[in-house]
Amino acid sequence: MRQKSLQMVGSAERLTVRVPEAARMLSIGRSTLYQLIGSGDIATIKAGRATLVPIDSIRKFVTRSGL
Fold first, then answer.
1. Would you say residue 33 lies in a domain?
2. CA–CA separation, 32 vs 35, rounded Å?
3. Cα separation, 47 vs 64, whole angstroms
4. Which residue range is the domain that position 53 belongs to?
5. Considering the domain boundaries, does residue 47 fall inside one?
């Protein structure tokens, strides 16, 4: 059974989420997430004007932090 934090699109797992969704997944505010991004704890990808957070980056952060 898949965890709720893994978002599915069709039959393929999503690789990225937008900042508000990443903040919800981590149960933190957007400002806190931007601080983590600024400190290099969480990676982002810019696609045009959109800031995308790789799911792998979220997983690695959670593992490192012990959340």
1. yes
2. 5
3. 27
4. 8-62
5. yes
DSSP 43: -
In a domain, 3, yes or no: no
Helix residue ranges, H only, the chain: 19-26, 30-38, 55-65
Give the pLDDT of the chain (67 residues) as one tens digit per residue.
Answer: 445 545 555 667 899 999 999 999 999 999 999 999 999 999 999 999 999 999 999 999 999 998 6
CATH number of residue 39's parent domain: 1.10.10
| Rounded alpha-carbon distances, angstroms, from residue 52 to 7, 26, 40, 57, 66 | 14, 15, 14, 11, 23
What pTM was estimated for this model as a whole? 0.78
